[in-house]
Specification:
Two copies of one chain form a homodimer. Chain A is an alpha+beta fold and 333 residues long. In chain A, 42% of the residues lie in helices and 20% in strands. Chain A folds into three domains: 1-59 and 306-333, Malate/L-lactate/L-sulpholactate dehydrogenase, four-helix barrel (Hypothetical Oxidoreductase Yiak, Chain: A, domain 1), CATH 1.10.1530.10; 66-175 and 224-268, Ribosomal Protein S8, Chain: A, domain 1 (2-Layer Sandwich); 184-216, Wheat Germ Agglutinin (Isolectin 2), domain 1, CATH 3.30.60.50. The longest helix of chain A has 19 residues, at 87-105.
Chain lengths: 333, 333
């Protein structure tokens, strides 16, 4: 591991993106997103993912020149086409429009079709909540998990994001429908460790906490067994049918994961019923959560995003830990 | 078990509700909801729950005279107060308003505070989808599950509903954040059976599939471990802060579960991007799901609500199986 300052990382990403056809403005924003994801501890969708993002540009899967275009609108709803441009830029634009619509109509929804991987869903939750909006959004993905009762991968892990402004920061929940990502299973396998909780099925069809077994069967566990399987399906149904874009099964027929469908819903917090400050409501909820009797003494339950802010501040002051090989490769790009 | 015809059940519910202070119109609607929930196989929020509903009216927890009132509105958003009236009537009204707002604005959101238990969340999904709208809604509940990493119950199982029109019917996902309800744990315990999958923690803090152990510790498992715990918290945060109503922790301080907070979001399917019929998109998704290689040969994965329609039709033609003691008690009311 090397420690890399956030600003240095951002400027390296920026340099590489400009070299790969991004305008300065787009490179600024996109580099900022990849850096922030890493700063927040999500290297899998930050520095570790950046080389693949560049590769997708080189291969023409991600088109740096493409701009999202408005297909149609209806008061509080807008439908956009991502035109296979950079996923994070398309998603940020969609988030921005959703918040603008919410300012006008109380709630706003933007759908995005033919876009690319948005990297970390939380990015858009932090963005909207940082501007004072409640946010709800999701993406579909290629098929990477069997439906409940099936052995072959036909549903996506379709990450879902909820975000709410809180104190100076936000509460942001960003989670995939699979219990563990394949990346996480690889990490446990390489470390020779079992999963903390069962995460899939072995070749005998039994639940297992052995990552190697799951990587063999590719039968990753949906969260909550049949419940997460159903939720994954619904998120795909909503994303594809509302946007008029591709579904998980259609995306899976492509050579690479691209042309995704996404939904962004923002809610204004400026026109809530009078009589109760919503920050006080949330504060009460978090205060009560912290009164929990912890399983491990001293380890109170955390709220979604609590650790993120802690890690962000730590990495801001100390530098971001990065795999040396990955960082060397990025410097060479 | 006795077999009871749906129409007979509805008219008995109607009679009892009128005797307990409901107007004919309200009794019609409310009896229909309890009957339909039973017809769809959800007796726990239908016939088996009806006596407790009547008891709550008798005790003054549910006020049959109360009407929901509009607190404030802002274009596509309306905030209502349930005034502690019958939960199913309040929730149906909120669903109705959300679809009306969606017709006008593309998307509509209604929040409801100080309402009572809505019984089956799916009711409102079937209703909205039946009228051609996509639907997304949830309720908070009293605390009935420990947060991840905690031993005492401080979060709710906060059911979440997604619904989408499909063919002549709908796809409706309606699920709580706990893996199994306490009612379901009781059923397995009484039958002397283990749970099909781990559903909570035993007194040693280990995951267990023994329902008796979980009923002792009251440590029911959130779906997806920490993920469902986070989602439960977010749904409570959204419901309480958007509605200006009570949170799970505040509801839990009451003698009975009442004064809940709920969110209803409807989306118009009439202003989607041209070029692709959304029914065709959904049809493709379901067709692909059905191509899955099933774990049990012949048992293809089902989509949410698929079994409901099957059971509904069966119960419509054959009568609804009801516990004889429960039915006798209802006839005596």
């Amino acid at each position: 591991m090397v420690l890399v300052q956030g600003e240095l990382m951002r400027s390296e990403f920026r340099r590489i993106l400009i070299r790969n056809g991004f305008t300065e403005e787009k490179a600024d924003i996109c580099a900022g997103i990849f850096m922030m994801n890493t700063l927040d501890g999500i290297s899998s969708h930050g520095v570790n993912r950046f080389p693949r993002f560049v590769e997708y540009i080189t291969k023409g899967i991600v088109n740096p020149d493409a701009e999202p275009s408005l297909i149609s609108s209806s008061a509080a709803v807008e439908h956009w086409d991502g035109n296979l441009g950079p996923g994070p830029l398309n998603a940020l634009k969609a988030t921005q429009r959703a918040t603008e619509l919410a300012s006008l109509h109380g709630i706003g929804m933007v759908t995005l079709r033919h876009t690319n991987h948005w990297m970390r869903g939380g990015t858009y939750g932090w963005n909207a909540a940082g501007k004072g909006f409640a946010f709800l959004g999701w993406t579909n993905t290629m098929a990477n998990m069997p439906a409940w009762g099936a052995k072959d991968c036909r549903i996506g892990n379709n990450p879902l994001v909820f975000a709410m402004p809180f104190r100076e920061e936000a509460i942001v929940l960003d989670f995939a429908m699979s219990q563990y990502s394949y990346g996480k299973l690889e990490v446990y396998k390489l470390a020779g460790e079992k999963l903390p909780y069962p995460g899939g099925f072995d070749s005998h069809g039994n639940l297992t906490d052995d990552p190697s077994e799951i990587l063999l069967t590719w039968r990753a566990l949906p969260i909550g067994y049949w419940k997460g399987s159903g939720l994954s399906l619904m998120l795909d149904i909503f994303a594809a049918s509302l946007s008029g874009g591709l579904s998980t099964s259609e995306i899976s027929q492509k050579d690479a994961e691209c042309s995704l469908s996404q939904v962004f819903i923002a809610i204004s917090m400026k026109s809530l019923p009078v009589g109760r400050d919503f920050q006080e409501t949330i504060n009460n909820i978090i205060t009560d959560l912290k009164k929990s009797d912890p399983v491990v003494p001293g380890n109170e339950p955390r709220y979604p995003g609590e650790n993120t802010v802690r890690l962000r501040n730590k990495n801001l002051s100390e530098g971001i830990p990065v795999n040396e090989e990955v960082w060397d490769y990025i410097l060479s790009l």
